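Record passed on underneath.
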Amino acid sequence: MMGGRPLSAQSTATRLSQVRAGLGLVQLFAPGLAGRQLMGQPFERHARIVVRTLGIRQLAQAVVTVAAPDTVVLSLGVGVDAAHAATMLALALFSRRWRRAALVDAVIAATLASMGAAAARAAPRARRPHPGRFPFVRPAA
């Protein structure tokens, strides 16, 4: 709810995409920022490449979510974010060096997954394509 009124499904998905796009832009164009904030020093080259790659993924996911904000797309996004959170928790468990950055990233990914789940619950169900439009898609019996 914003300002006492519930957000529409479209508005929830749009806000999620805006947050995701903002994160992706920062990751893509300022990957060292997180390193300085979390570790007190910039990330080395390979870590900046990984952060930039994650930024590209966030931007792509934001674009797909804006293009088709239905339950299927949003639910797939929740799965991607949950998997990312799980891998960051595993990294935090096994790497003392990257623990702080991985835990922060896991919290961000879990937050995006939570936002995505809320948006998916409010979103319209995906429309099935007309059976004649896509010959490789068979209508459900």
In short: The mean pLDDT is 85. Residues 71-94 form the longest helix (24 residues).
